[in-house]
Amino acid sequence: MRIFLTGATGYVGGAVLDALVRAGHDVTALVRNNEKARLVARRGAHPVIGSLEDLDSFRGSIDVQDGYVHAAYDGRSGRGPAIEEAALQAIIAAARRPRTAGSAGPGKRFIIYTSGVWVLGKTPEPAAEDAPINPIALSAFRPAHEKMVLDAADDQVRTVVVRPGVVYGGGEGMIGDIFKSASNGLVRVVGDGNNHWPLVYDRDLADLYARLAAHGGASGVYHANDEGDERVNDIVGAIKPYLPVKPDVRHVPIEEARNKMGAYADALALDQVVRSPRARALGWAPSLHSVAGNAARGIENWESRSKNSSMERQVDLAARAVALVSAPSESVDVGDPPGLPGLPDPPGPPFEPPGRSCAASATGVVTCGCGGAASFSASTASGFGSGSSPATIESINP
Hints:
With 398 residues, the chain is an alpha/beta fold. It has a domain at 2-169 and 198-226 and 273-288: 3-Layer(aba) Sandwich (Rossmann fold). It has helices at 11-22, 34-42, 56-62, 80-96, 142-151, 173-183, 202-214, 232-239, 254-261, 264-268, 277-281, 295-326; strands at residues 2-6, 26-31, 46-49, 67-70, 109-114, 123-127, 157-164, 166-168, 186-190, 196-197, 199-201, 220-224, 230-231, 248-252, 272-274, 356-359, 367-370. Strands 3-2-1-4-5-7-12 form a 7-stranded parallel sheet, with helices on both faces. A two-stranded parallel ribbon has the order 6-15. It is globular, with a radius of gyration of 20 Å. The two termini are 27 Å apart.
């Protein structure tokens, strides 16, 4: 199938891109600049340079698609919810337009929207897809967007909302922040650490998206988590034995954390026990069920992927430097500064070299004097969305 994907260079969207390409789909990916276009092209997609904010930049690419996966969130301008609403309206309109002549796609087009489990709010008792919602502040806009997508379903379009849990893998996300902080010798945990995080491995999550795209009867809301019900304290305690120096752990009172990072503190302290029965009914079975139980492997993967990401960026920087020298009249987009490892989807400061101060997260509430790491890492403010890379938050979740 021909599938249009947003967020393809973000945390969630990147994993989804790989899963869709492996499944044999023809993926068109919306990206911001030439550097990211080269990245997604190497991974098997057709890049379209543009942005969610500039609807005309991708409007011409969406009419010919059989399906749409939205896994991005643009936090650059501080108008993320409004930008996303307009982008979803454009995608819905395209999905409802008549197909081009000779299309061999499925009978119905599909739209998959990436939301997140934070729309549920506190759920100390198991919450399935039919549980009532009570979104925390960071996700307050999402229920309306979920409803917009679900209400768009008709005889020609099937619509899906995916609510990922806290995504891990690839050295990013909230779990990646814990690994990073622990390796630096100090983990700050917001609250008492006895709260549960509903977790999901990034590749397992991507597999669900591929299943939902291929399953012609899939529609409605799907949770995506491993149902391991792990507490933050369990995760922090499990990784200690595998580090050269055991890190100190400081539990930060919620009010102090709110003063430092605003509404994100409540997300980090949120207690959630989530179930995903509708996803499992499709045959989805996460390959990993525990961060704590795979702590040694998790740290090894985090170290490996972090090094690889650093090396890849150095290669890209060198290639662009050569391009500037060989073609000085050509404008070469150097891209965004690398964000701290982050959520699809959480607000967070951009990376700053040691000795400089970083400020202005996507929500405008995080400031830190940092030497390359935020002062509240681990349970810290880092780029979300769903995954993400703010200065722009590429994908948000939960």
